[in-house]
Amino acid sequence: MNELAEAWSSGPIRIHFEGIGTVTLPPVDTLAFLGGAALLAAVGLIEWPLAVLVVVARLLALTRRSAGLRGLGDALALVR
Questions:
Q1: pLDDT for residue 1
Q2: Which of 9, 13, 22, 33 is at 20 to 30 A from 62, Cα to Cα?
Q3: Could you say which DSSP state residue 46 is in?
Q4: Of the given ranges (7-16, 38-47, 65-74), which has the lowest mean pLDDT?
Q5: CA 15 to chain CA centroid, nearest Å
Q6: How far is CA 56 from CA 20, 28, 29, 37, 65, in A?
Q7: Cut 0.85: pTM above it
Q8: Residue 32 pLDDT exceeds 50
Q9: φ/ψ (deg, to 5) at 24
């Protein structure tokens, strides 16, 4: 696997800009989902409010899942 594929599969992408700082992008699968929702709305297959609702629901689900997994990891670390 090349370096770019390894970086994309490992998690969030961090890009450093001079004078601005570091920008963290979500994982590739999330970026693909967001792009797909925007494309469907731009083409007119779904309405913009529905696309925004779906994207917000996806981002909230990812936030809750990662927090839950983090808590599970902390609990397992205490068991050792």
A1: 47
A2: 22
A3: S
A4: 65-74
A5: 15
A6: 26, 17, 15, 11, 14
A7: no
A8: yes
A9: -105, 120
| pLDDT over threshold 80, residue 31 | yes
Token pair of 33 as six digits: 């989902």
Say which amino acid occupies 9. S
Q: Which amino acid is at 20?
A: I
Q: Domain ranges in the chain?
A: 3-79
- Output the six-digit token pair for 40: 């469907």
Cα–Cα dist 56/51, whole Å: 9
Helix ranges restricted to H, 1-80? 3-9, 28-43, 48-79
Q: Is the pLDDT of residue 27 over 70?
A: yes
Nearest to 13 by CA among 1, 30, 34, 38: 30
- Six-digit token pair at 3? 């370096």
The reported pLDDT for the residue numbered 11 is 66
- Tokens found for residue 65: 């899942």
